[in-house]
């Protein structure tokens, strides 16, 4: 029973990498570009970005699975919610804290892996347009970026 929960949490976490890629390419650089644009083009003075609203969407999805678990006895609801939440926390730490330095932490991390992650993300941010919004995930980055 506990093994199945752990497997579900891990599988959900891994599948969230695909969901993040898909939603970034087809939603953020698609019909909701108006919310994501300020992440690529800093046209504001606020610490917050309209792009931060995507966090709320994923938090609601995770919360929905908790409700399904608690109210409707959907057994997989809690481990799915945990997987989504763990991915969200990891994404926040890697993307917002480490890469974009929204909090001045982890700025001295300078090994081959962290340089590769930063390099891949920097190349993605060179595109300030809606089109060609391809990006890489946290779990997979092409080896060419790890020089």
Task: Give the SSE map.
Blueprint: H1 2-31, H2 33-40, H3 53-72, H4 77-99, H5 112-126
Helix pairs in contact: 1-2, 1-4, 3-4
Distance between the termini: 43 Å
| pLDDT averaged over residues | 83
The helix content, as a percent range, equals: 55-70%
Quick one: overall form? globular
* Quaternary structure annotation: single chain
- Unreliable stretches covering 5 or more consecutive residues: none
Q: Would you tell me the structural class of the helices and strands?
A: mainly alpha
Strand content: under 5%
Helical run tally: 5
Report the major sheet: none
Which series of helices and strands comes N to C?
A: HHHHH
What count of domains describes the coordinates? 1
Radius of gyration: 17 Å
Q: Please count the beta strands (DSSP E, at least 2 residues each).
A: 0
């Amino acid at each position: 029973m506990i093994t199945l929960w752990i497997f579900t949490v891990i599988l959900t976490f891994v599948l969230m990498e695909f969901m993040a890629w898909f939603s970034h390419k087809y939603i953020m650089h698609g019909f909701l570009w108006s919310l994501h644009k300020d992440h690529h083009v800093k046209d504001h003075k606020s610490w917050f970005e309209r792009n931060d609203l995507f966090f709320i969407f994923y938090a609601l999805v995770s919360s929905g699975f908790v409700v399904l678990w608690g109210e409707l006895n959907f057994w997989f609801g809690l481990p799915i919610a945990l997987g989504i939440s763990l991915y969200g926390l990891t994404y926040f730490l890697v993307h917002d804290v480490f890469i974009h330095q929204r909090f001045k932490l982890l700025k001295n991390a300078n090994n081959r892996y962290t340089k590769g992650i930063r390099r891949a993300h920097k190349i993605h941010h060179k595109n300030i347009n809606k089109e060609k919004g391809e990006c890489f995930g946290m779990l997979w980055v092409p080896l060419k970026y790890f020089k």
